[in-house]
Amino acid sequence: MSLLDLKLLRDLKALKSQALAVALVMACGLAMMIMTRSLIVSLETTRDAYYRDNRFAEVFARLKRAPNAVAAQLAAIPGVATVQTGIALSVTLDLPGVLEPATGLIQSLPEQGELTLNRLHLRAGRILVGRESTG
Question: What DSSP string describes 30-59?
């Protein structure tokens, strides 16, 4: 073993605790990076599954008044998979136990069948039925 190798070993023994501290800091940084990336992937996967399962729209267009023919024109745009028309109204909700008024969106339901976009998720109760299915 050469003198330089011996000096290197002596220096490493003297700096053993500092080298260990640097290695631990690097390991913690790597762990944080992996954890953050895993969190991002998990959130993206969850969002994509929610959008897919509930047929959640990715683009919304609000109009004051438009003829029904506009829906056909929107559906003809390349990349548009589904178009759903309806009436939506923003409202202020006065909820018990909430200090400031909450905002809500009242949205019309189709006369028959299910919503093609933005499926409702009921926690309690039942869905309203259309005109034709009431008898």
Answer: HHHHHHHHHHHHHHHHHHHHHHHHTT--S-
* Domain region containing 31: 3-53
Phi, psi of 6, rounded to the nearest 5 degrees:
-65, -40
Distance CA 26, CA 5 (A): 26
In a domain, 19, yes or no: yes
Predicted model pTM = 0.58
Closest CA to 110 of 82, 90, 91, 75: 82
In angstroms, the CA 81 to CA 59 distance is: 11
Q: 103, 91 in Cβ contact below 8 A?
A: yes
Question: Count of CB atoms within 10 A of residue 85's CB?
Answer: 13
Task: State pLDDT tens for residues 39-61.
Answer: 999 999 999 998 888 888 888 88
53-110: per-residue pLDDT in tens? 888 888 888 888 888 888 889 889 998 888 888 888 899 998 888 899 899 988 888 7
Please check whether residue 120 lies inside any domain of the structure. no
Q: How far apart are CA 45 and CA 63, in angstroms?
A: 32
